[in-house]
């Protein structure tokens, strides 16, 4: 199933199709993942391009699990700002699945993001920081 997911994320989509249909289709694929598929996904994120990683982060944000969070954290340390923001946005939506022991690592990732030009991104990061501080 991982190979099918990987190929799907490598496909070209219009942004409308991806938002309307693509994310749901890819999330359905994740629901069929075996433990081996999850391991393959986790191992692959260091070797994928930024477009693939953004799509993956968006899909993982729909998967309410600690494994999705762990993979998103691997994606969030990427040097590409768009990738990092996509991962953090999905992490924000999965905050209830984050263990207290992961909060320091998450704080470090957030502190490394410079988004002075984006009000929406700053709002998302502020929301995530508030959730961390409330724990």
Percentage beta strand: under 5%
Gyration radius, in Å:
14 Å
Number of E-state strands: 0
* Helix percentage range: over 70%
Give the SSE order as H and E letters: HHHHHHHH
Low-pLDDT segments: none
- Characterize the main sheet: none
Number of domains: 1
Give the end-to-end Cα distance, rounded to a whole number of Å. Answer: 36 Å
Describe this structure as you would to a colleague:
The protein starts with a helix and ends with a helix. It is built from eight helices and no strands. The protein is mostly helical and about 140 residues long. About 70% of the residues lie in helices and about 0% in strands.
Topology (elements, then pairings):
Blueprint: H1 2-10, H2 15-30, H3 35-44, H4 50-60, H5 66-76, H6 81-93, H7 103-111, H8 119-134
Helix pairs in contact: 2-4, 4-6, 5-6, 6-8
Main attributes of the structure:
about 0% strand, mainly alpha, about 140 residues, 8 helices
Quick rundown:
This is HEAT repeat domain-containing protein. The protein has 135 residues and is an all-alpha fold.
